[in-house]
Write a structure and sequence with these properties.
Protein name: Glycosyl transferase
Largest sheet: 10 strands, mixed
Number of helices: 9
Order of helices and strands: EHEHEHEEHEEEEEEHHEHHH
Helix content: 40-55%
Radius of gyration: 19 Å
InterPro entries: Glyco_trans_2-like, Nucleotide-diphossugar_trans
Pathway: Cell wall biogenesis; cell wall polysaccharide biosynthesis
Keywords: Glycosyltransferase, Transferase
GO molecular function: transferase activity
Strand content: 15-25%
Shape: globular
Number of strands: 12
């Protein structure tokens, strides 16, 4: 078999139904030289037992022993894959379904350039399969944030392969050598922005991140965290933006950094007022808590 060996990592937390559905989707793909690793992030239900019984014959199920977040859980799977001679590692959200040719097209993309370190694909909404959730990633350094290109657009069948700033951790195919050069996923974030941080580090080492929209999957979008702007996502998104700004401050000059920080805090005030006005006090509290957590994390590293 000439196909490179790929390990597909699925992270599970209390969502065995999604994980099983994802595995069933993967079983139908055209690419054959792959193995699936499910890392259960210390689920509080019977996920590990159910997954072992239902898909254990197709997958390696690993119990992390602690819910350490997205990066921590995936890193367990990545480490296992590397130790078992993976040539590529695919990080894939467990709340996704895939097209049969998605992985073959991603692997083929690597043949374009030896400096490609990560290949990503187009991700559409599961609930609206012709609507784009991720159509490429652009880093906005004036805000220290990552923007999903073509977000919310109708899928027009574009097949233009291009270089992007970052790929969402929802689905990224990574050359194993990248982990040896860059390291594993940064685990200080718990959830959100670790993928952006990792892509920044990958690019700093001279690797390219390539987007191939002819490869396509469908994402249920934040199924495990309550939605795209749940109180949970508000809390961790705000915490982690502070950490990212502090970590990559050198990417912009001093005046731009001051402007970025000023925008962040002024816009948080505006959002706080909006949440209160809309009766979303849970989100208002979550935002304040997230900011406090981010600032305390920075202080702990000084």
């Amino acid at each position: 078999m000439n196909e490179p060996l790929i390990y597909i990592i699925l992270l599970n937390y209390n969502s065995y139904n999604d994980t099983i559905e994802c595995v069933e989707s993967l079983k139908k793909i055209e690419y054959k030289n792959y193995k699936i690793v499910i890392v259960d992030n210390k689920s509080t239900n019977d996920s590990e037992k159910i997954l072992s019984e239902s898909v254990g014959m197709y997958c390696k199920v690993i119990q992390s022993g602690v819910n350490g977040g997205f990066a921590s859980g995936n890193n367990i799977g990545i480490d296992y894959a590397i130790k078992n001679n993976a040539q590529y590692v695919l990080l894939l959200n467990n709340d996704t379904l895939v097209e049969a040719d998605f992985l073959a097209k991603m692997v083929e993309t690597f043949k374009m350039d030896d400096k490609i370190g990560i290949v990503g694909n187009q991700i559409n909404y599961f609930s609206q399969k012709n609507k784009i959730w991720f159509g490429g990633g652009q880093i906005k350094w004036d805000r220290f944030s990552g923007a999903h290109q073509n977000y919310g657009s109708i899928d027009n069948g574009d097949k233009t392969i291009r270089e992007i700033d970052f790929m969402t951790g929802c689905c990224m195919l990574i050359k194993t050598e990248v982990f040896r050069i860059v390291g594993l996923l940064p685990d200080e974030y718990f959830l959100y922005l670790e993928d952006l941080d990792f892509c920044i580090a990958v690019a700093e080492k001279g690797y390219k991140i390539i987007y191939n929209p002819s490869s396509k999957i469908y994402h249920k979008v934040s199924a495990a965290t309550g939605g795209e702007e749940s109180a949970f996502s508000v809390k961790w998104g705000n915490r982690n933006r502070i950490i990212l700004m502090n970590k990559y401050y050198y990417k912009v000059d001093k005046s731009a950094l001051i402007k970025a920080k000023a925008f962040f805090y002024v816009s948080r005030i505006a959002k706080y007022i909006k949440y209160i006005a809309n009766g979303e006090s849970d989100k208002a509290r979550a935002m304040v808590e997230g900011i406090k957590l981010g600032r305390n994390f920075i202080k702990s590293k000084i």
